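Job type: complex structure
Entries:
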Amino acid sequence: MIVAPTAAVAFERVSKAFGPKQVLRDVSFEIREGEIVCILGRSGTGKSVTLKLLIALLKPDQGKIWVDHEEITGMKEAQLSRVRRKMGFLFQDAALFDSLTLYENLALPLQRLTGKSKDEIDFTIDTVLEEVGLAADKRKKPSELSGGMRKRAGLARALVLEPKILLADEPSSGLDRITASEIDELFLRQRAIDNKTILIVTHDVHGARRVGDRFAVFDKGDLVAFGTAEQVERSEHETARRLISEG
Amino acid sequence: MPNPIEFVGKVNLFGYRSVIDALRRPFEVAQILRQVKEIGAKSLLLVIASGFALGMVMTLHTRGTLVTFGAEALIPTVQSLGFFVEIGPLVAALLVAGRVGSGIGAVLANMRATEQIDGIESLSIDSFKFLVVPRVIACVISMPLLTLFIDFAGLLGGFASERVASGISFHLYLSRAFMNLEWSNFIAPTAKTAVFGFIIGTVSSYFGYTTNEGSQGVGRAATNSVVVSSLLIILVDVILVKCIFFLFPESAL
């Protein structure tokens, strides 16, 4: 497979199994720089695993994965660490460290991975929290934040190292429509500000159609459709057509 | 839990990795201090109270027998030797295994279940070095210190009991307590608790860090941490006592 020069992320015939359960089977796709791609599918079809493979929290059994033109599957931990810095990950439940305040959660990667001074760190954190609308809550612990605030806090942490690629695992789960659309707005703004590539795993087809340029539909570990909303609507695969038309 | 041979191999590799990573930069000083406070300082009350009560009980038990043989004056000596050589180190280790081991296992397992460990990795931070190494080091540092506290609390408990029974003065009690105590009765048994600390930190972190059973794994990690740490402490104690006798023959009672 020849990865296009414009591809921010690419999968080439990637497979992954957990014991006897095949989670991904021979999956190939490319995502262009600055593109928002939404990954759709029923529960347990390998959507979140796709994101975790991208950020190398999991390793594929077969196939190759490219991130920002670098093939990551054979990389050692030190190299992976460098590649991971190009990506920010918004976890489904935000995965903030519950023993730290929001400020400390955001300061941790900045203190450890950048040479920024205390003032620079404070400025970066204030800027990012302002962007997600949590400037007034930086001294709170995650347990003091509502569901929507936690998502935004998780997004702030994903953005704090200024990644080129943003991965979001079900950012709207458990949120009302209005809060979910606020999160969607944040994604659109991130792309508009610095042309971030964004991959979103979601069950919210309505929100996905609002922000997504293209859509990947998974079914039982197979990538059954990949393209614009119109292309997926014309897909031969019934699940893909049904899923995309729900929105 | 895996089969015993596989488990021993995995825990050994886990412990080896924690030693190697402890020698690598960054040294996580802030995290280590935080864990020393969590593991050491917060166990202090439990350790002192247990040591004091145990000291009293031990004196109550030994008094009857020693009085029968007219060896009442040896009660402080028996008390100090018993505590400094074996009871203090072992009881402190078992108490810490119960309080801290379950805590470490549960906290790390919860962090695994709620993706906090993945969150750390996704930020290019080595989660093992950030979470496991400081806990193991803190256990190694805290155990000998807590042992000192339980030793002296035990002596005080013994004194309180003797004071009521015989009216002995504090000065006389102490001089009798330390009359036959050699440095080798004190240094080596106290130092061996650093090994107990390593066992508690490594085993508990192993169960918490490697669980993949979601929220169910939290309870299991806590239980396994306590049971396996306690068992290993008792088994390793036998080996260490033998080693101490070999290295310091004069410490054999």
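Summary: Chain A touches chain B at residues 52, 55, 57, 77, 81-82, 84-85, 87-89, 91-93, 95-98, 108-109, 112-113, 157, 161 (CB under 8 Å). The mean pLDDT of chain A is 91.
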